[in-house]
Amino acid sequence: MSYNNQDAFGPTIPDRDPQETAEWLESLDALAKTHGRGRAREIMQSLLRRSHDLQLNVPLVPTTDYINTISPEDEPEFPGDEQLERTYRAWMRWNAAIMVHRAQRPGIAVGGHISSFASSASLYEVGFNHFFKGHDHPQGADQIFIQGHASPGAYARAYLEDRLTASQLDGFRQEKSSPNGGLPSYPHPRLLPEFWQFPTVSMGLGPINAIYQAQFNRYLQGRNFKDTSGQHVWAFLGDGELDEVESRGALQLAANDGLDNLTFVVNANLQRLDGPVRGNGKIIQELESFFRGAGWNVIKVIWGREWDVLLDRDTDGALVDLMN
Q1: CA gyration radius for the chain?
Q2: I need a labelling partner for 115 at 20 to 30 A (CA). Which of 43, 51, 149, 324 fits?
Q3: Which pLDDT tens digit goes with each residue over 62-118?
Q4: Rounded to two decimals, what is the model's pTM?
Q5: pLDDT of 8 strictly over 80
Q6: At the topology level of CATH, where does 72-77+114-150+185-312 sit?
Q7: Average of pLDDT values for 114-135?
């Protein structure tokens, strides 16, 4: 009689060759003892990847180590001017923060959100400068769902591009009361049709709409209504936002349809409106497990390049164990 002991790697059928199995286990023990746990981990991860290539139906490992998914040697060269982009990224962070600060002045006191864009500015700028396709692109425009609470950053960028004026920024969250024409709190095409393409922020609206947008693009392509093969859907989300039911409710649809024209970019800044996100846990690991379980590919970006030297010296895996 079979049993389920909740162990994905537990015994389910009798071992057909216990002696051979023991030899493999002995080899793994020797590898870890001789070359360290880090090297043993690398070998096991390589074997798991190969098992998936061979379609051996090996149970999925729900989480990977709490380090960057892409190793330094596999990273491509940065295509832009890193110092220049860092400089005007700082300008945008400052302008976004001042915009929110000004919205809190006496007589107005509507405020806004600062940390969402401050912690994700690099994500947006790399996208705008090196990934996103505009409406004049021959393959068609990408569709981008901006995280609602990061709207000050989009306005700050538009100001540097001379698409918005200082008086408009000074009317943030004051669409009705500002004499110069205010800017809406969150992305919404009805409130600012010449600026926003999709509404987000409300109850997981952005994530689920992004999935259906990517599915619809695939439908248009499959029925020869429109060539959408070069268009990509990007959804920028917060870690707290992903607790909304609608944020995760259609993940399996994207996996079932193989929507490789869709990317979720999750900013794990560990903050939400009513407190910290998983103060006693690791939200990145939780989300990795959830998305991988739903059939998604997950790339984690956690540590800056300064950690690469330390991790390279971690021959026995002690530092990675501590991070985990």
Answers
A1: 24
A2: 324
A3: 888 999 999 899 899 999 999 999 999 999 999 999 999 999 999 999 999 999 999
A4: 0.86
A5: no
A6: Rossmann fold (3.40.50)
A7: 96
Tell me, letter by letter, the H, E, C secondary structure of the chain: CCCCCCCCCCCCCCCCCHHHHHHHHHHHHHHHHHHHHHHHHHHHHHHHHHHHHCCCCCCCCCCCCCCCCCCHHHCCCCCCCHHHHHHHHHHHHHHHHHHHHHCCCCCCCCCCCCHHHHCCHHHHHHHHHHCCCCCCCCCCCCEEECCHHHHHHHHHHHHHCCCCCHHHHCCECCCCCCCCCCECCCCCCCCCCCCCCCCCCCCCHHHHHHHHHHHHHHHHHHCCCCCCCCCCEEEEEECCHHHCHHHHCCHHHHHHCCCCCEEEEEECCCEECCEECCCCCCHHHHHHHHHHHCCCCCCCCCCCCHHHHHHHCCCCCHHHHHHC
Which amino acid appears at position 208 of this protein?
I
Please work out, in degrees rounded to the nearest 5, the angle formed at the alpha carbon of residue 195 by the alpha carbons of 80 and 198.
Answer: 95
pLDDT digits (tens, 9 = 90+) for 198-223: 999 877 899 999 999 999 999 999 99
| Residue 5's pLDDT band (cuts 50, 70, 90) | very low
Sequence spans of domains, the chain: 20-59, 72-77+114-150+185-312
